[in-house]
Each structure stands twice: as structure tokens, then as C-alpha cells.
Design a protein that fits this description.
The chain has 82 residues and is mainly beta. It has one helix and seven strands, in the order αβββββββ.
Length: 82
């Protein structure tokens, strides 16, 4: 629970995906958020996607260093650009 608070998810983290260059990592959770972290920039360097997949995010996968896909309980696949 402490980890989730530090990561700024409001509920359970359900998935994680690394960018091909290992400079970013994306986490998805039951709170419907996706947070993309800049690994080299520290915990304050992040991009938050609110309501990414309604009902929770079940998978995130980077397609390139600047694009990733997510899927979730809403039965949709979404492509995101950073």
C-alpha cells in the first residue's frame, strides 16, 4: 500500500510496461490511471493519463519510445502518444 501511495495511484497497480530504450516505465491500475515515469528524471518527472480505461487498466505495452497501448475493463484498446 505504501508503494502505491508514492506512485500516485489511488488503488491497486495491475500492470507495468517498459519503453524500448528503458528510459520510461508505465504503470496502470484499478483507478483507471496510467502513469508514465521518466526513470532518469526521478519521481516528479511523470505524465498522468486520467480515466485511461474505465473500470481499470489491465495491460500497458510500449510500441515505441513515444507511443504505447493500453487495454482494460472497458474492452477497448487505446493508443497513446507521449
Amino acid at each position: 500500500m505504501i508503494c502505491q501511495t508514492k506512485l500516485n495511484h489511488q488503488s491497486k497497480i495491475t500492470c507495468l510496461g517498459w519503453a524500448p530504450d528503458s528510459r520510461r516505465v508505465a504503470t496502470g491500475g484499478l483507478d483507471s490511471k496510467i502513469i508514465v515515469w521518466d526513470v532518469e528524471g526521478g519521481p516528479t518527472k511523470k505524465i498522468v493519463f486520467e480515466r485511461a480505461n474505465v473500470g481499470g487498466v489491465s495491460a500497458v505495452r510500449f510500441l515505441s519510445t513515444s507511443r504505447f497501448a493500453s487495454t482494460g475493463s472497458d474492452c477497448s484498446v487505446k493508443i497513446w502518444v507521449i
